[in-house]
Amino acid sequence: MPEITREEVRHLADLARIDLSDAELDHLAPQLAVILDSIRSISDVAADDIPPTSHPLPLTNVFREDVARPGLTAEEALSGAPQVEDHRFAVPRILGEE
Amino acid sequence: MTAAPALMSFEEALERFDPALGLEVHVELNTASKMFCGCATEFGAPPNTQVCPTCLGLPGAMPVVNGTAVESAIRIGLALNCSIAPWCRFARKNYFYPDMPKNFQTSQYDEPIAFDGWTEVEVDGEVFRIDIERAHMEEDTGKSLHVGTSGRIHGADYSLVDYNRAGIPLIEIVTRPIRGTGDKAPLVAKAYVAHLRELLLGLGVSDVRMEQGSLRCDVNLSLAPSGAGTLGTRTETKNVNSLRSVERAVRYEIGRQAARLVDGERVVQETRHWHEDTGITTAGREKSDAEDYRYFPEPDLVPVAPDEAWVERLRAELPEPLREHRARLQKEWGFSDLEMRDTVGAGALHLVEETIAAGASPAAARKWWLSDLARRANERGVDLADLGVSPTDVARVQQLVDEGKVNDKLARQVFDGVVAGEGTPDEVVASRGLAVVSDEGALSEAVDRAIEGNPDVAAKIRDGKVAAVGALIGAVMKEMRGQADAGRVRELILEKLT
Question: Do B197 and B92 share a domain, yes or no?
Answer without folding.
Answer: yes
